[in-house]
Amino acid sequence: MDLDLKMLSQNDPLNRYVERNEGGEIYSPFDPPAEPLVKESMSYENMHPLLQSFIDEHEEIKKHIQLFDDAIQNVRKIGFTKDIYQAIRNFFESFDQKIIPNMKREEKFLFLKLHERLIEIGEHSPSEPIQTGVTLLETEHTHVIQMGAVIFNFFALSWRLKDHEAKLQVLDLAIEKALQLIEIIRLHSLREDTVLFPLAQKHLKPHEMTTLLEKRANDA
């Protein structure tokens, strides 16, 4: 796994997790922040191809998440096997090659333009710094990347430790945080599919999204 560690704090990811990022909130699907956006009812067929492309990527990501979830649940039931070990490695490869690139494309080819448009029409926080619903989802992207790096390090550490008790403690923590990450990614994708993308369809002009789609294609 080759995570972009420049996205993380200069501190070690393990230390970042232990300190719990005291300066900010940690969101989870079990204790979500107040939803800043109103859900819009809109079918996939009525969305612009740019937005459909992101939803299609989410469908692929869901498959990787489910396989990871199955592997973690099996670790709890029967412990590590060769297949489970490989499934976990496969997830972190997909995290690096699928999940992170998806988030980067969303930020580059949708978030910036939509954030600007929401500010233009007055759908933003009343105080400085100005925030929109996009701000929350972009913050969640950073949090997901941080958690992924931490969990990867926990698993790697548990596989290296020779002390049995220490190995089990670190592995237990890795499993706990992995299950949290799974639910966070699922909730985040749902928010984008049912809240953010319909909002983009509503407020961005078709030719603007077509231009963004062309830029995305040229960036591939």
- β content, as a range? under 5%
Distance between the termini: 21 Å
CATH-level-2 architecture: Up-down Bundle
The domain tally reads 1
- Counting DSSP E segments of at least 2 residues, the number of strands comes to 0
CATH superfamily: nmb1532 protein domain like
What's the average pLDDT? 85
What would the CATH topology be?
Four Helix Bundle (Hemerythrin (Met), subunit A)
If you compute it from the alpha carbons, what radius of gyration comes out, rounded to the nearest whole angstrom? 19 Å
- Residue share in helices? over 70%
Label the structural class.
mainly alpha
Apparent shape: elongated
Order of helices and strands: HHHHHH
Number of helices: 6
How many strands, which pairing sense, and closed or not: the largest β-sheet? none
Low-confidence stretches: 2-36
